[in-house]
Design brief:
single chain; 690 residues; mainly beta; Immunoglobulin-like; Maltoporin, Chain A; 5-stranded mixed beta sheet; 5 helices; 58% strand
Length: 690
Amino acid sequence: MFDYLRYDEDILLLDKYFSPYSIISLFLFSFPVALTGECIKILVQDPAGLPVPGALVTTISQQEKTNENGRAQLCNVALEKNQLVTVQASGFQPIEKQINTDSKEFIIRLFLSARLETPIVVTGTTEPQELSEINRNVVVLPIQNPEVPSWSFADVLKYDTSIDLRERGPEGSQADLSIRGSTFGQVLVLVNGMRVNDSQSGHHNLDLPLPFEAVSQVEILHGTGSTLYGSDAIGGAVNFVTKKPKASELKLMAGGGDFGWHRQAVVSGLKRDDWSQRTTFERNSSSGFRPGRDYRNTSFSSETFIDKNFGSTTVMLAGNQRPFGANGFYGPWDSWEKTGSTFLAASQTIGRDPSKIRHRMNFSYRRHTDNFVLFRHRPEIYENLHTTNQFHANYSIHDEVNPKVSWSAGGSLLSEDIDSTNLGLRNRERVSAFFVLNLRPTERLSLAFGVREEVWEKWRGETSPTVSLGYWLGRDFKIRGHAGHAYRIPTYTDLYYEDPVNKGNAELLPENAWNYETGVDWYPAHDTSVSMTWFQRRETNTIDWVRGVDDIKFRARNFAELTFNGAEIQFRKQLGTTSEIGFNYTSIKASKTPTPGFTSLYVFNFPLNSINFSYKGSLGKWIIFKTRLGAFNRSWQPAKILWDAALTYTNGRWRPFVQVSNLLNMYHEAFQGLSQPGRWLRCGLQLQIF
């Protein structure tokens, strides 16, 4: 460092301002540097081996940034034989590395840092995984939000614009579920990964045995899911994940509102070391927003969790009863219906060490009853009683061979029977096996290949392959793609039902579909996410109920070919700890329209465009405000705007709240001629005892 000193003015300045001892000390301190005047070159790379410009390389005495080629040069610094070097770069994990100064160039490879924190999901993947790492379009809707209570699953599902919830009756009395323009039978409904679809009719798929308060979050898989779950997952799958207690609690809720609405709920949780228990009860009723549209819903669930070193055990018992007025549901009649279900499920996992093989066994039993009266006050004219039983057993095994390779395999047995005054006494069994291979060649690239073979009815079967991939172009930008096959076996109603205006078809073929999609996920900041997806679904043998001009009855039939094209956009931004804004948009177009002179009941009933704006935030110190503004249009219905809002006081154990649905009092229909409620005010009180 003495190169710049001149032996005239500079030396005089040293003599003037420094003592001889200071000069000697300065010389001794600088001596080692003078001895190591050679440069050390460092090359910083990302996991794929690409250069990382702008990385900060630090030693004990110097800092340098890498150039556009990812290189930094450290010269005239004190380097020991094994020198500790720290490298930091935006989007990557900081790393400390000891380098041997005998070499003149070093390569330091970084690892991507954690992106936007996303929830752990179990839908669309063989093992629990962070949402951002799944190469499918999966939407997660949280339910257990103590700040802003909701009333029903319908309130939550409306936040996903790719879902069309065609409600005949409010709050789960009866609702058809569609994803990406599918029919209600083409969506698979799961509870903790176990299927609850009804073999009698897809109209009962959302007749969930669970109280609303029992569920933690809803995970929605957009697109085919038959490789993982079997039949019915053509449009997608909806998985209701129950809540495991983290601490003991007791919570009560009561409310009232327009149209004679009343609701009561009790939630209790008990936590003891490796054992926990959660019990929930819910009752809600209404005299109806119009004559013949009353309902009374009661549901109960009890779930036990046991965690041991060898694995986890879960046992669930749940059930519901739903009598409701069905005026106009299926025709111009003042009908009445009562449904009920019992659900028993058990799950056992063996193995917790990710480096070893893990096993999972599931068993579930579902019993569903449906009592339908065509004329409410004259049941002797026409009445149906249907009882279905479903047994489902599943086994899967998972092994992580190394950090780059893992696989899952398994098999399942499904038995369905029905005892019906209309459909007869029938049963069927299905056996299936699947295999999924997950590859991670680099930290940026992930691939998954899978196949399921399902066999039923005299060894007739379906093969459902799938492939998906994802690639991180950087820390915050990911591209993904998927292709997969799905199918659906007709329900007993599709095959055998008959009444004065409907007739099934015993010759129906199973529905088949291929789904193709590509998308991008962008995380521009730690509190922001953007997702865009384009999809195409090509269906064959699509089942619909159709009536011609001269026909009296709707008849079940297969469409030869039908293609759906669409796009999805999802945006979410957190505005602090309690505030969040969201935006969703879905557009769908079918390749065909109903044949002139024919009326279709279900296939062409989907929204062409659907859009949502949502906001949750604070008003003052203790008030939380939540709102959703949505709009949609159908081929037979012009654009409708629906606005919901809710307020909750969050301080203390007593928490009053108020909610208004359809704030604009907009008239709209889920099915042609079947009106939905107008403005509906509800309010209540929630008490957190402990």
